[in-house]
Amino acid sequence: MKTIIALVFFALSFGAQAVEGSFALQKADVDVFDLESVRRGAGYFVDYCMGCHSIKHLRYSRVGKDLEIKDEVLRKDIMPEGAKVHESFLTSMDPEDAVKWFGVAPPDLSLVARARGADWLYSYLKGFYIDESPTRPTGVNNLYFKDVAMPNVFWDLQGLQRPVINTHEGNQVIERLEKVSKGKLSEEEFDQTMSDLVTFLVYAAEPAQYSRLSLGKYVIFVLLILAVILFKLKKEYWKDIK
Ligand code: HEC
């Protein structure tokens, strides 16, 4: 009996995924070694996301060190008013209020880039569209996350999008999204903004990647020196044998 229930759930979840995943992902332009991009992304995160989401594994001080930002710039450009440098990227939203407002608490985004992948995040952030059905309290839906509880926070920067619906084998399917109002940013500027934000989330999911790279360089340097010493040693040994 349990197996049957499990199978039914599996089939159902598969069905749900098929609807969500039926749109090809858009490719995010992510380079975590472009520190300017990660810095901009950190600023966007605090301005546009931290009202609801936290990155509880990441401290401001760590970001300052990894991204080579001076304390006073960190305070001015990234940290919210009143935050302290040793604190984490924590939202001030009360989880109970969040449930009251959205029906679900916004998840912590510390590891979201690892769980979802950069392309999914990028596509998701660009995938909000107008959905006026009465079951949608936010007035929007998302191509990559059906019936998501999150509102579209970038409606003014991106402009509003409406779905172009086609009938395919008797089913109504969304073919693509179409702009119905102009955003404050041009399409290229908006894409760049989303890429910066995703790049920051990719960094946040694994802040150790920078130190790992410098460790890698150090290891190669030590191996090279070792190789030279061994080469000399070999010559020394064989000198008398010849
Ligand atoms: C007004 C509150 C609010 C703001 C602001 C907000 N979100 Fe959300 N977000 C939510 C809620 C609520 C959910 C949960 C959606 C659900 O489960 O249906 C969510 C879900 C998500 C998810 C899906 C997580 C997962 O894997 O299930 C991602 C990714 C995300 N948000 C990213 C962002 C980013 C990036 C920003 C800033 C640009 C942002 N959000 C701003 C409320 C918000």
Helix and strand arrangement:
Elements: H1 2-20, H2 35-49, E1 55-59, H3 60-66, H4 71-78, E2 88-89, H5 95-102, H6 112-116, H7 118-126, E3 128-130, E4 140-142, H8 155-158, E5 161-168, E6 171-179, H9 187-205, H10 209-239
Helix pairs in contact: 2-9, 7-9
Q: Output the CATH class name.
A: Mainly Alpha
- Rounded to an integer, what's the Rg over CA atoms? 24 Å
Q: What's the shape?
A: elongated
The residue ranges in which pLDDT falls below 50 over 5 or more consecutive positions are 14-21
Helices and strands: which structural class? alpha+beta
Describe the structure.
There is one protein chain. The model is unreliable at 14-21 (pLDDT under 50). The strands form three sheets. This protein has a two-stranded antiparallel ribbon. The protein is α+β, with helices and mostly antiparallel strands. It is 52% helix and 12% strand. It is built from ten helices and six strands. Helix 2 (35-49) packs across helix 9 and helix 7 runs antiparallel to helix 9 (187-205). It has a single domain, classed as Cytochrome Bc1 Complex, Chain D, domain 2 (Orthogonal Bundle). The chain has helices at residues 2-20, 35-49, 60-66, 71-78, 95-102, 112-116, 118-126, 155-158, 187-205, 209-239, and strands at residues 55-59, 88-89, 128-130, 140-142, 161-168, 171-179. The structure holds heme C. The site of heme C has 22 residues, from helix 2, helix 6 and helix 7.
